[in-house]
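1st attempt posting a full record on here, be nice pls
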Amino acid sequence: MFQRTPPWIIPRRDRPYTRPERWLFARLPAWRRVYRAYIYLRLESFFFGFGPSKVMERQLTKMATKHLEEHVADPALRAKLMPDYRIGCKRILVDDDYYDALQRPGAELVTESIDRFVPEGIRTVDGHVHELDAVVLATGFDSQALVAPMRVEAADGRTLDDIWADGPEAHLGITVAGLPNFFLVYGPNTNLGHNSILFMFECQFDYVLECLAEMRRRGARSIEVRREAMSHFNQRLQRDLSESVWAGACSNWYKNASGRVTNNWSGFATRYWWETRHPKARDFAFA
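the predicted structure (as tokens):
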């Protein structure tokens, strides 16, 4: 395992449901809703660790550090696996088995930088050649190319790439000024670092359907978010994000080359639900 940067890891704590729990889930639908609400609210609380307050951040750091210490006894290996950046600045891993896998017979963690591929395998900058039969390249992804490889073109000939030359942005991550009848799901600033993205999708689906219903009610053929509405939303969004851990000193995929956070939502998932529960007609132009 060639590691560039160690991740913060918190335990998943997976376990089989007990027989009494399964009995309750099967026979009491209300209990299922209560349990789902418990999971949702517990995950919502993690957002406190990503804002300006340091209280929850210290708790998350303590949890992750304890998880590392409990699973890795070797001080040298533990030092290699200890991150040197604020928890949450990069994607947190939720896993019970990662540290155990690195300590299995035959496994080796390499932290020296890779120099090049050679016929025998990989040579690191210290000159050591690691003989390998196969290499899995974890190359990541382009988090700024939200609709690639599609070409989206506005009526004036500009493409979405032109509109997003300084980085992706949208109103509530769903609509873009200059592009009527164009809706995004999992658009700019709708990713989460703490709760379920499926909940965000549900909010977006409902919002889009309500926009279409408003078009039908008005007898309109097009709907387009007003530029001032999108601008006002993104100014407030970026102001909030500037105080978040994602805008910190580490390198992450949440922000673009200029340091602007373009992927993550700036608050609780509940706040996103509140802001998308009904489209505001004044934010749109109908034709």
